[in-house]
Amino acid sequence: MKKYLLSIFTLIIPILTFAQEEELGLDEKIDQAFAPVAQFFTDVIFFPIYQDDAYTIPFVLVLLVGSALFFTIYFGFPNIRYFWTAISTVRGKYEDIERHGAKELYGEGGIAQGQDLSNVDIEEHLISVQDDLAIDGDIVDTIRDESSEGEVSHFQALATAVSGTVGNGNIAGVALAIALGGPGATFWMIVCGLLGMSTKFVECTLGVQYRDVGEDGTVYGGPMYYISKGLKAKGFKTIGKIAASIFAIFCIGGSFGGGNAAQSNQATIVIKELFNWQSTAAGAIVGLVLAILVGIIIIGGIKRIAQVTEKVVPFMAIMYIVACIYIILSNFTLIDDAIGLIVSEAFNPTAFGVGSLIGVLLVGFQRAAFSNEAGAGSASIAHSAVRTKYSASEGLVALLEPFIDTVVICTMTALVIVIFNLGGFFEYGGDGSGAIFIDGLPYEGAGITSQAFAQYIPYSNVFLTIAVVLFAVSTMISWSYYGLQSWKFLFGRGKVADLVYKILFLTFVVIGAAASMNSIWSFSDAMIFAMIFPNMVGLFLLFPVVKKQLKRYLSAINLKKEAIDS
């Protein structure tokens, strides 16, 4: 393991040698060192299957969207059919059968005896019915001893995973999509989000199904486990091991990029804008402060992360959505115009440089995929830690993620920006690289959203700065867990290996804060999308397992309903 860690440090050292140069500002040194790294990975991951002067179609995007469409059709539109079942599961309606098993509670001779135990203390109920249960005297001990494995509840797992997806992709990413592709990009983001719900269902079901549970009860799960274990069971041990290792490497890269550097980058942009901070070392200083804050939190592991995110994420999301709703309702008469523009521009784009329908579709799909991460497999790492006996239960919970992230929050942001620009403040397409000009000044990412908010909410720059920082920190702490699980898969579960990963992770917080948005987001896109290749190997070979587990969970729910209704 020491040999591998030494190799990693050798690769990182060139990025850190910027401190020896003196002719550039600190932030510029970091950006100059990092830009070639970002460009290299972008060129490798986004290789095209078609290219002309108007647009480029990367293979990875076709793979992602095509897979989502396949899973949606194969499972009979689970994003629609099981939406309310997913909500009931999050609310804990089926927690009793997930912890103790449907047959044990509601089957013939079960302890429920016609009572719904979802909101009942099982121990107290066992005492009250113990005399009536005379099946060799061991059913009570069986119920007590065979509760489900796992570390967190459905809600905690969803909050942790949502905090990993709901981030500055919703604020900066949407702004970038509209700046590049115009209002029509919003339509295709929504389409991609709806299809992504099915992919998320598949990968998170597999995450629970093939997870490992340590002797101390710690759960280890995610694509690296379902790829290696699942393919081994099908006779593809070597392929599974290679694909799982490749995924783990890319997931570590994703945790450094999209789950980290991109977040600190946007947080730094709004902080510098709020305080009008022009220092050439401002980004590095902000990054260092963020690194200290995140470092304090991530030492606690998944339980600490779950405790933080289950409080921060709902508050963060509600605060941001309320602000968006206020702006949208304040411009009620413009809503139909904004929606009409989004739909019409989706099929007849006029944004400068976007080209045809294919161009705006690609922009929307790429930004939606970055935002909700469906197909990348990252969220299944957090979902695998849930307490349940039915893997498909968490798969259903997980399909809510792209809906919350893309269909709700991204759409809110898009409506605010489109309504704002009905006043003609900037030209869609901008400079062609993601920046637009308002009153002659360039704005990009979260800066565009900030300008839209400032038009309608006094002191919104303070509000949006808080929102962006909260989004960033919650995303970073969740992604630190994803990356650490992948690191453990490659280098073992020792404390030294953990510490090395966390140091590298916190280093990228500073790099992201100091480097330019263009290089950071290029690297982040490449790392997130790179995870799709090995993940799809697992999904396409193991999706029949998901269908079997879905049937098993739905049967358990029906058994409970029949026992209570009879």
Are there runs of 5+ residues with pLDDT below 50, and where?
A: 8-22, 134-147
Give the radius of gyration: 24 Å
Structural class: mainly alpha
Report the biggest beta sheet as strand number plus sense, adding barrel if it closes. Answer: 2 strands, antiparallel
Q: What's the N-to-C terminus distance?
A: 59 Å
> Which strand order spans the largest sheet, edge to edge or round the barrel?
1-2
Number of strands: 6
* Proportion of residues in β-strands: under 5%
What is the count of DSSP helices, taking H or I runs of 4+ residues? Answer: 26
Give the assembly state of these chains: single chain
Percent helix? over 70%
- The rough form would be described as globular
Round the mean pLDDT to the nearest integer and report it: 81
Features:
two-stranded antiparallel ribbon; 26 helices; mainly alpha
Protein model, in words:
This protein has 566 residues and is mostly helical. The chain has helices at residues 2-16, 26-45, 59-74, 78-81, 83-90, 95-100, 102-106, 122-129, 139-145, 154-165, 168-181, 184-209, 223-233, 237-275, 282-298, 301-330, 335-347, 357-372, 379-383, 391-398, 400-421, 446-454, 460-491, 495-514, 517-530, 532-565; strands spanning 48-51, 56-58, 212-213, 219-220, 435-438, 441-444. The strands form 3 sheets. A two-stranded antiparallel sheet has the order 1-2. Strands 3-4 form a two-stranded antiparallel sheet. Helix 10 (154-165) packs parallel to helix 21 and helix 14 crosses helix 15. Mean pLDDT is 81; it is low at 8-22 and 134-147.
